[in-house]
Amino acid sequence: MISGLYPIFRNWSEKGSVYIISDTHFEDEDCKIMDPNWITPQEHIDIINKQVYKNDTLIHLGDVGNKEYIKQLKAGHKILITGNHDRGVSYYEDVFDEVYGGPLTISDKIILSHEPIDIGSIMFNIHGHDHSGIERESNCDNHLNLAANVVNYTVFNLGKAIKNGLLKNVYPIHRKTIDKQTYKSWKKEKIEMEAVNNEKS
């Protein structure tokens, strides 16, 4: 179980792993424009089903394409955060167990979205949308792009990544506020001590 998730989302990892994909674009005509080597929907389904099983949760970060392919996925629990190419939330409720129409904060350190969100260093943003080929920008430790063609059409294991230090550079807003106040108190005490020492001299 991924204990760092908010309680409402912990059921995702009770029986198995939590995997994430984005931008499958099943049967979308512009796939070959985005990437001339784009694989077929069935090839993509086969890759996913070799990694994700019935006890696992699969989170899709949007731009599904033909939703009928979702029925072929083995994952026992399927979640969608809609993307810019997707229709309204209700359109996908017959193939996904949970559907969200926008970014979803699943812990005090992780926010899932379709498009990248500028959140500084206070959270880790897992997203898709960007088909440029860049998974992690060197100047931005707190973003991960999982657009299908960028990650070679594979899924991302969230629990494993957290165990391997995914969130090591995330400095939650609560901690920042506490540390800022602690620093102010320390600085004030230091100034007061210096004043006392100067009076004694």
What does this structure look like?
It is a single chain. With 201 residues, the protein is α/β, with parallel strands linked by helices. The chain folds into two domains: 7-170, Metallo-dependent phosphatases (Purple Acid Phosphatase, chain A, domain 2, 4-Layer Sandwich), CATH 3.60.21; 171-201. Helices cover 23% and strands 15% of the residues. The longest helix has 28 residues, at 173-200. The radius of gyration is 21 Å and the shape is elongated. The model is unreliable at 175-180 (pLDDT under 50).
Q: What's the gist of this structure?
A:
With 201 residues, the protein is an alpha/beta fold. Helices cover 23% and strands 15% of the residues. The chain starts with 17 loop residues before the first strand and ends with a helix.
Can you list the strand order of the major beta sheet? 4-3-2-1-9
Helix-strand string:
EHHEEEEEEEEHH
Report the total helices.
4
Using the coordinates shown, work out and report the CATH topology of the largest domain: Purple Acid Phosphatase, chain A, domain 2
Mean pLDDT: 87
Number of domains: 2
The percentage of residues in β strands lies in 5-15%
Parts with pLDDT < 50 across at least 5 consecutive residues: 175-180
| CATH homologous superfamily label of the largest domain | Metallo-dependent phosphatases
Largest sheet: 5 strands, mixed
For the CA atoms, what is the radius of gyration?
A: 21 Å
**Structural class of the helices, strands and pairings?**
alpha/beta
Helix content: 10-25%
CATH level 1 class label of the largest domain: Alpha Beta
